[in-house]
Amino acid sequence: MTSTVRTYLGRLLPQLIALTIIIAAISIIFPGFLNLQIQNGRLYGSLVDILNRGAPVVLLAIGMTVVIATKGIDLSVGAVMAICGAVSASLITSGHSLAETLLITLAVGILCGIWNGILVAVLDIQPIIATLVLMVAGRGIAQLITEGAILTFNDPGLIFIGSGSFAGLPMPVVIWLVFGVLVALVVRQTALGMLVEAVGVNREASTLSGVFTPVLLIAAYVLSGLCAAIAGVIAAADIKGADANNAGLWLELDAILAVVVGGTSLLGGRFSIAASVLGAIIIQAINTGILLSGFPPEFNLIIKAAIIVFILVLQSPRFRAAFAFVSIPRVAGKPTEREAK
Amino acid sequence: MKQKYLPLTATILIFLLSYALCVAQYPNMLSTRVIGNLLTDNAFLGIAAVGMTFVILSGGIDLSVGAVIAFTGVFLAVVLEQTGIHPLAAFALVLAITTLFGAVMGAIIHHLEMPAFIVTLAGMFLARGMAFVLSIDSIPIKHPFYATLKSLYFKLPGGGRITLIGGLMLLVFAIGILIAHRTRFGTNVYALGGGTATAKLVGVPVASTTVRIYALSGLLAGLSGIVFSLYTSAGYSLAAVGVELDAITAVVIGGTLLTGGSGFVAGTLVGILIQGLIQTYITFDGTLSSWWTKILIGLLLFAFILLQKGIIRLSRNGRQPA
């Protein structure tokens, strides 16, 4: 038991160190950063704010991690967020109950996932292209639903999802915590996670050894669609309206970045949901930190780019080979994408 | 007919057919004015798509294109506003920067053995960030030389005009076709798309080819940025968002295989024209909302991917009858 805990911590150590450094750096520049206070039975403070603001990206990153572990990628999540936000707003304004609205919205997200999954698993299309179709068309579909306007609503139940609180924590944080733990348990307490990794390392070999790859692949994209649907509802509930143009815009890139920061290789195989969640929080902490510390927000993207390049260098096979004596090689003899192609 | 010409032929047929359908409904669409505008309005996209064609032919992808276009526009606007240098000198300077930018991305992709997707994503953040740092406002460009350039056009019979930027796009496509099919570099690009390992074995200089492919894409994105700044007479750091997706879509609709190794630069031109045609049709119609453009292009993209899949399956069956 202690050894599993130790390996788990070992896996998350780089992300934890990075997060600690970032938070320490911000709290030096901005002293009030670590303050937490309880008002009206709810926790307030910059740290809670990071967890709350990061909710959509955290949710997307959970689904994206599993998709990337299958050696895929899901570019459509931002567009699916927009579609699901639009669906929930139009349902609630047309008089449906909250339960109906949420169920139908999540079903729409799942449907989007099935579409992507069938393109990838059955029609055997490259994931980046298969999901590009929905990424291009999705925003159009969302605008079709909202008829081009920003659809506002004032249903207290739906708004609660975006700005309510439960057990002292903002509702979005509660949702991603529960959902993340649930997904992590399902993939790690069963053989599912291992099978997903097997598909990511070598799809053909795992099919030959009896893994039913098409279903597994579709399930991965369905999970991603479901995550996008929840994120879409949160984003819409947060602004009390569905904005088909801007909801989830470029969040797919943030989600992919979160997975990469979390140390899951884009080439498929081993994955860690907890690490991706940490990755998403790191990104949000950087965003919040740049805003708080009075740096012009224009530098946000440049700092992000610098961080990606830094992580890429650390992850690159050649760099690893050169410093193999320092770190323990995690994956031995793994082909790079170019060779595997 | 050779199988490799099938996607290109399909693209051209779809373009002619849809143009004929448009003309049947709106006879006014059959005029040189519409064609001239089609070229002018899509000039920046077309030029960027030529670079994207080379990248995709080699089996890679370049997500930084839109951000580089925005950076180029802001750079030109800031330089022309604050210094006295001639626009032509500014053009040369910015093209050098974007070419170098592309080359560095290519070098990272090759030497760090990282997927092109994530490297160019970082490039996209960096270029967009640099544009933000230069200015977050939309800066108008009022240099008289810009007015001169914009007033140049070639008059077609029937009142249509091929503007300087429309003509430039056609020229870039012509040069792109020459490079792809008549130079050693072009052959190397196709070989790289067929498989890095194979390419290395037959003696393709993989490192220098990869660097040159992304440098070319950077150069053309810079040129596209110049055209875009001529087209809009302004530089704005939030401009040209998502152009890389339009360019990728045009390349795919144009019949280039996304796995690399097969396709034509000329197909991309038709892909651009099809996208432009959808937009023009929606403008002519007036009742359809602009978001139908996205849905139609998405559907078209899907249809072409299916077509490509079918062709690949056919050619496989042809080779080894089972």
UniProtKB/TrEMBL annotation, chain A:
Residue ranges the record marks as coiled coil: none
Q: Record's Pfam families? A: BPD_transp_2
Query: Can you provide one Gene Ontology molecular function annotated for this UniProt record?
Result: transmembrane transporter activity
What residues form the membrane-spanning segments? Answer: 12-38, 50-69, 75-94, 101-122, 128-146, 158-187, 211-237, 249-267, 273-292, 299-317
User: What keywords sit in the KW lines?
Assistant: Cell membrane, Membrane, Transmembrane, Transmembrane helix
Where does the record place it?
Answer: Cell membrane
Chief place of localization: membrane
Q: List the InterPro entries hit by this protein, alphabetically.
A: ABC_transp_permease
Any one GO CC term of this protein is: plasma membrane
Task: Write down the membrane topology.
Answer: Multi-pass membrane protein
**Name this protein carries in UniProt:** Sugar ABC transporter permease
UniProtKB/TrEMBL annotation, chain B:
Q: How does it sit in the membrane?
A: Multi-pass membrane protein
Transmembrane residue ranges: 46-76, 88-110, 116-141, 162-180, 213-239, 251-278, 290-307
A GO MF annotation of the entry reads: transmembrane transporter activity
Q: Does Transmembrane helix show up as a keyword for this record? A: yes
Q: Give the InterPro entries listed for this entry.
A: ABC_transp_permease
Subcellular location per UniProt equals: Cell membrane
Keyword field contains Lipid metabolism: no
Give the matching Pfam families. BPD_transp_2 (PF02653)
Q: Please state what the protein is called.
A: ABC transporter permease
